[in-house]
Structure formats: C-alpha cells, structure tokens
Amino acid sequence: MDADAITLAVADNPALGEGINDIRRRTAAIVTGEIIPNEDALRRDDDDAEALRARIRERTRAEGLWAPHLPREYGGMGAGFLNHAYMNEVLAWSPLSNPLFGVVAPDSGNQTILVKYGTEEQKRRWLEPSVRGEIRSCYSMTEPDQPGSDPYSIQTRAVRDGDEWVINGRKWFTSGARRAAFAIVMCRTQEEDGEGGARDRMTQIIVPTDAPGFTIVRSVPVWGHDGDHCEIVYDNVRVPVTNQLGRTGSGHQAAQDRLGAGRVFHCMNSIGQMWRAFDLMLKRVMTRDVHGGPMRDKQFVQGFIADSYIDIQAARLMTIHCAERIDAGVDARADISAIKVAVPAAFERVVDRAIQVYGAKGVSGDTPLEAMYRGARTLRILDGPDEVHRIVIAKRVLARYRDGMSWDFGA
Ligand SMILES: Cc1cc2nc3c(=O)[nH]c(=O)nc-3n(C[C@H](O)[C@H](O)[C@H](O)COP(=O)(O)OP(=O)(O)OC[C@H]3O[C@@H](n4cnc5c(N)ncnc54)[C@H](O)[C@@H]3O)c2cc1C
Predict the structure, then answer these.
(1) How much distance in Å is there from the Cα of 379 to the middle of ligand 1?
(2) What whole-number distance in Å separates Cα of residue 36 and Cα of residue 52?
(3) 8 Å CB contact between 335 and 322
(4) Helix (H) or strand (E) holding 42
(5) What are the residues facing 182 on neighbouring strands?
(6) Superfamily of domain 111-249
(7) Pairing mode, strands 180-188 and 136-140
(8) What is the pLDDT of residues 217-240, one digit of tens each?
(9) Would you say the C-alpha torsion 207, 208, 210, 212 has a positive or negative sign?
(10) 35 neighbors 368 (Cβ within 8 angstroms)
(11) Residue 52: phi, psi to the nearest 5?
(12) The pLDDT value given to residue 113
C-alpha cells in the first residue's frame, strides 16, 4: 500500500485554545510518524505487528492521548466534547488509529453507556476491564426481521422470572460478537407503552457471551468481507436482573445517548478520512502525466480538486457548528441529523473522485481508498439511514414553523 503519501500536516487554528492545538499537533505526529508509515505491518496479525501496536499504545498513553471519549476517573483523557471532536479529525487520517488511541468500536460506545447508566458493580465488572483492554464487547440491537431504523419495533423479549431476565430473540449485525466477553442487548421489556409512550418499551441488558442459550449462528459477510458482524440467537438466555442497565424502560434513551453526540465524532472521523483521500488525490495529480501533460493541468481534474475542497470545508463547518450547539446545550437534534446525512454523502463523493484519478489502482488494495469508499457508503445506513434523518429534520423544522418560531434552532 502507498504509505509515502504523507503530506498531511495540521495547521494551528487560532480560534481554538492552545490546549487543543497542542493535542492535535501531538496526535498528528503519532499518526503521520508511526501509524501511516506502518499501516501494512499494523494490518498483519503476527507478533511483530502486536509488538508495534503495543509500542504505539504505550506512546499514546504516555502522551496523555488515551481514550479521549472517557472521563479521567475511568482511565480516559477527559478531553471534553469539543476537544475530542477536533482531535478525531486528525486521528482519523489513518483508519487504524482509533484503537491505538484507546477508542475501539463498538467498545467505546458501550463504555459511554456504562459510564452513564452502569451501577458501581457493573462498572467494576465490565467497564474497568474493557477500558484496560482486557475484554471486548458488542452491541446487539438490530434484528433481521424488523427495520433497524425503527427501534420501537424490536421483538427480542426479556421477561422477568424472579431475580432473572429471560431473553429470547434473534439479532444480526452485532459487530465484534465473536471476540466479545459481553453484549449489551436491546430487549423489549414492556408490551404496553409506559408513561413515556413507546420510548419506555425497551431496556438494555448486559449478557455475557458465554451464557447458555447465546449462540452465534454466522458472521454476515459485508462487502464480501467477514467483518465479524454476527447473527445471534438468544434462546432462553438467563441473566440476573442486576445486569439491567438503568431503569426498566430506559433502553431507547440510552441508545440515543450512545448515538446522539457520537455522530459528531463519527462525522469528524469521516472528515479526517476525507483529508487523507484528498491528500492522496493531490499526490497523484502532482506526479502523474496523462495524454501529454500533467494531470494537475487538466480541467476535469481541477474540477475534482475544487469540488472536493468545497465538500470537505462544508462538511467540516457544518459538523463544528453542530458540535458547538451540543456543547452549548442548545437543541441540536435537527443539526445532528443534518450532519448524519451530509457528511457521509460528502465523504463518498470525495473518495469517489480520488478513486477516479487513481484509475484501476484506486479500486485495488494498494491504496486505502477502496476501503474508505465501502466505509463511506455503509455510513449512509448505519446509525439511522439517510431517509430517517431527513424525516427528523423536516418534522422538527415544520413543528417550529407551525409554532411561529424561527426554523433555525437555537440561533
Ligand atoms: C457494517 C455494519 C455494522 C453494523 N453494526 C451493528 C452493531 O454492532 N449492532 C447493531 O445493533 N446494529 C448494527 N448494524 C445495523 C445498523 O444499525 C442497521 O443496518 C441500521 O439501523 C438500519 O436498519 P436496517 O438495516 O434494518 O434497515 P431498515 O430499517 O430496514 O431500512 C432499510 C431502508 O428502508 C428505507 N427506510 C427506512 N425507514 C424509512 C422511512 N421512514 N421512510 C422512507 N424510507 C425508509 C431506507 O432507505 C433504509 O435504508 C450494522 C450495520 C452495518 C452495515
């Protein structure tokens, strides 16, 4: 793979404090100095690769750049919401960075839930070893026979039997289940709507993956790859009621907490990858001649450069604007949905143009572009498909308009 295309450099932003500029500079030094040049080696699964990963992890810990999503008391960096978002943009220049900075999907989302909803005992048993990297976890919500975009339709049921929950159902796309020590499972615990309406039907329950009745049926291949996205049968799985996260019926809210602000981090991640794709595209057009002249002089190619620049800057400004609104405590639900639609689409376009200038090499495994393309396309479905987010935006705008308020949220 082309590891030589490292012209990525982070510019200090005078509008940000010195603290975050410093974090971004040090993150960039590790990503460009240690991770990108070693991407081929880091992808392998041998002792040398593990030793390399351990060395980089040691450095990120020593530099205080470990687990930006977690507060310090749980072994994280305590970066704060905005700093974490800005850091992500640089960290994502390599698709391999996140775990080397202590952010391992889907564990990081589960850790966030455990911090907020876990009891002291749940934190000791599941959160702490997860943060130390001793155990992995997975998140089991989507079902093959129900629309994942409608979380109220979940059919996996948990029924109380004395001091236990008994769980029956079928899930799929539970990423990372084969390596996981526990799953956070979204279960229907109430047939009738509670005081909070349909939102009260679901509860999240911790299920150890060695519990009798927990069976992985298969890994669902995604884009032809076995990414460990598992189909799982829960057949009379019994767990103590103390494995329940939060109050009965809080599952939907907990899922929103996991996904809501997390979408900003995902978008900043996508923007970081757009930087890399753009950088690779520039490298290519600067160094390759086609039809009697440098690629960079062809107007089609210059159009690609301009359009990708516009896409990246627009996506970035929109995401930062949304992050600032969340940070200010302003209602940002429409903005979160807006970035969830706009950023993956921009990401897909930016990578697509980069692939185009690389020709056949662009769809080969010799650049990171083809994997980025698959990732960008998948993001338009994950965490809520585009259509569902568009509906959220329209409903919220119309409601405000009907109430005689500005459609601009929290301006
Ligand atoms: C690589 C990958 C990893 C994943 N990892 C996990 C995981 O770890 N844990 C987990 O629980 N899930 C996971 N998922 C599942 C993911 O969260 C769901 O795919 C997503 O929520 C969409 O649900 P669905 O696939 O059932 O699509 P559906 O809800 O069936 O939607 C399909 C399509 O229907 C259309 N649609 C839906 N609603 C509307 C509407 N109201 N109006 C108009 N059109 C509409 C949209 O075009 C949408 O794309 C993963 C998925 C992928 C691809």
Answers:
(1) 10
(2) 13
(3) yes
(4) helix 39-43
(5) 137, 208
(6) Butyryl-CoA Dehydrogenase, subunit A, domain 2 (2.40.110.10)
(7) parallel
(8) 999 999 988 889 999 999 999 999
(9) negative
(10) no
(11) -65, -45
(12) 94
Q: Rounded CA gap, 154 and 133, in Å?
A: 31
pLDDT in tens, 245-274: 999 999 999 988 877 778 999 999 999 999
Question: Mutation test of ligand 1: which of 382, 383, 393 has the most ligand atoms closer than 8 Å to its C-beta?
Answer: 382
Token pair listed for 7? 């012209």
User: In the prediction, which pLDDT does 5 show?
Assistant: 46
391 Cβ below 6 A of ligand 1? yes
Bond preceding residue 106 cis, omega within 30 of 0: yes
State whether residue 106 is helix, strand or coil.
coil
Q: Which ranges constitute the DSSP H helices of 106-192? A: 107-117, 120-122, 128-131
Please count the CA atoms within 13 angstroms of the CA of 41 that sit on its side-chain side.
Answer: 15
Phi-psi region of 162 (alpha: psi -120 to 50; beta: other; left: phi over 0): left
Asked if 137 contacts 130 with a C-beta cutoff of 8 angstroms, the reply is: yes
Q: What pTM value is reported for the model?
A: 0.93
Q: What would the two tokens of residue 333 be?
A: 């639900």
CA distance 318 to 406: 19
Which one-letter DSSP state was computed for residue 94? S
Cα-to-centroid distance, 147 and ligand 1 (Å): 7
- Could you state, in order of their start, the residue ranges of all structural domains in the chain? 18-102, 111-249, 260-402
pLDDT at 262: 85
Which parts of the chain have pLDDT scores under 70?
A: 1-7, 194, 196, 410-411
Q: Which residues partner with 167 through β-bridges?
A: 158, 237
**Nearest residue to 56 (alpha-carbon basis) of 39, 79, 73:** 39
Distance of CA 182 to the CA centre of its chain: 19
Can you identify the CATH homologous superfamily of domain 260-402?
Answer: Butyryl-CoA Dehydrogenase, subunit A, domain 3 (1.20.140.10)
Contact 290/358 with Cβ under 8 angstroms?
A: no
* Token pair 């900075």 in the structure block, residue: 101
Cβ(387) to ligand 1 under 6 A?
yes
Distance 290 CA to ligand 1 centre (A): 42
Pairing of strands 164-175, 229-240: antiparallel
* Spatial contact of 252 and 117, defined as CB atoms under 8 Å apart: no
